[in-house]
Amino acid sequence: MSDKTNSKPPFSEDIDSSINIKKGGSGEEPSAPRPAATVLLVRAPLNEVEVFMIQRNAKTNFGNAWVFPGGKLDEVDGIDEANDYCFGLSDEMASQILGLKKGGLNYWVACIRECFEECGVLLAYRENGDLLDDPSKDEMTILDRYRDLLNQGEPVLYQLCKEMNLKLAVDRLAYISHWVTPKFEMKRYSTRFFIALAPENQKAEHDGGEGVKSTWITPENALEKGKTGEFPIILPTIKNLESIEGFSSTRDLMEAKVKFQNEVSCIEPKFFMKDGKMVGLLPGDKGYEDH
Fold first, then answer.
1. Dihedral sign, CA of 22, 25, 27, 30?
2. Strand-pair category, 34-43 with 189-197
3. pLDDT digit string (tens) for 81-130?
4. Dihedral (Cα; 60, 62, 65, 66), 10-degree rounding
5. Any alpha helices (H) in the chain, and if so which ranges?
6. What is the DSSP letter of 241?
7. Could you tell me the residue range of the domain that residue 115 belongs to?
8. How far apart are CA 187 and CA 21, in angstroms?
């Protein structure tokens, strides 16, 4: 498997000025990164892979940027019930993949919760083992009610599972990358990125709060539009899009990613000023350890 993160020379480019990045004050100690999880929801309707992306509200951190559904881990993601409401992966297995002593399954749960909150797609299995793919009108009423509650900060994901006899489909996600926010940013996260197969008949749509627009787009198209400034994206988004280029089927893509879940390494970009421009280095780049 090629490592596209370090296959290119050190990058030297302006950070897109249209993106609202909240920087820390000069001389302030960097904040400790908070655990977070993000999911690349993918489909392949016409022999080309598409990924679901959301444009963030301009007033939020990373405002105007196009991102994948995701957010910080909540305490409820880590309660002991996680093993009871997940199918295909235990906390022990998930923690081993992430290199943690425990609590790894929390990241998979957070991905599913954030995906449901931000785009309305719930990755889950019915009691009979079938994928929750085409919810009935009555089921959609229940799902909409719980989505609203989750977006209001209510910890009701497992309550939803109880009411509808569901298991979270953590086996439909694969771990693909780990990024830590640079030290110059005010809000810092230690974000684990995952990729997941979208159910064919659930509709993905932004929530209208933190997300103001949404689209299904090929990684190639997103990267091309990103270069022109038409589609503002930040470095981790760019690199994760690059990692899923060139696939024509989600089956091949998921198989490729599952094989290398245990080989993911942590990436923390370092930025500095050079000739009046903000430039950056990634682990493995010449000069990275000097900054």
1. negative
2. parallel
3. 888 999 999 999 999 999 999 999 999 999 999 999 999 999 999 999 99
4. -90
5. 91-98, 105-119, 137-151, 157-164, 219-228, 235-242, 250-259
6. H
7. 34-290
8. 9
Residue pLDDT, tens place only, 30-77: 789 999 999 999 999 888 999 999 998 767 666 788 999 999 998 777
In a domain, 121, yes or no: yes
Element (H, E) at 281: strand 277-281
> Who contacts 117 (Cβ-Cβ below 8 Å, separation ≥6)?
69, 71, 147, 150, 151, 207
- Per the structure, the count of domains in the chain is 1
Please give the structure tokens belonging to residue 276. Answer: 């009046």
* The model's pTM: 0.87
For 30, half-sphere exposure in the C-beta direction (CA atoms, 13 angstrom radius) is 12
| Residue 254: Cβ within 10 Å count | 18
